[in-house]
User: Fold this.
Amino acid sequence: MPHIDYYFVTISPWAYLAGTRLEEIAARHSATVTYKPVDLGRVFSATGGLPLGERPAARQDYRLQELRRAQVKTGLPLTTHPAHFPTNPAPSSYAIIAAQAAGGGDVGTLVQSILGACWAQERDVAQDDVIRDCLRAAGFDAGLADSGLLTGAQIYERNTEAAITNGVFGSPFYIVDGAERFWGQDRLDDLDAFLAGDL
Assistant:
């Protein structure tokens, strides 16, 4: 049974625009998924990436065009300049880590709910009430927003270190069985083909 480590940041528009495709692909190939939210700033620092505000104007302009095109292709609602971006991704990351450990709900739905709160609903995913709403929507106990913060912080740090060690340099990033890497929501077709044995 193949396994996918999914590295992402909870305020990534590209992770949001992946929608539910990862979960659909995993189900089709009986693959398991571990959700690994990371500190993308540290990943960028270690791998040569630049935060959005430090990129040249040409790259920032191109990003906006790509977001517009990706939104049209996916049909997902998207605000390219949401009211609460950037914001602190750590609290929502800790909640995802706690939910994955606790079980009882759908982690994929939780991740997409948090991403959608930022990019479609213009809510601040660093706020407790937003995180609680997302937990409930995915079938989890809303109290997970406040539990296991120390453990969440430790796992978040370990996820970030693992991302750097394993060659991750952006979000979303998918690694199959610790070896085959796919960067970006626009590589999900390749991930699907690889799991099917066609790549």
Remarks:
- The chain has a mean pLDDT of 97.
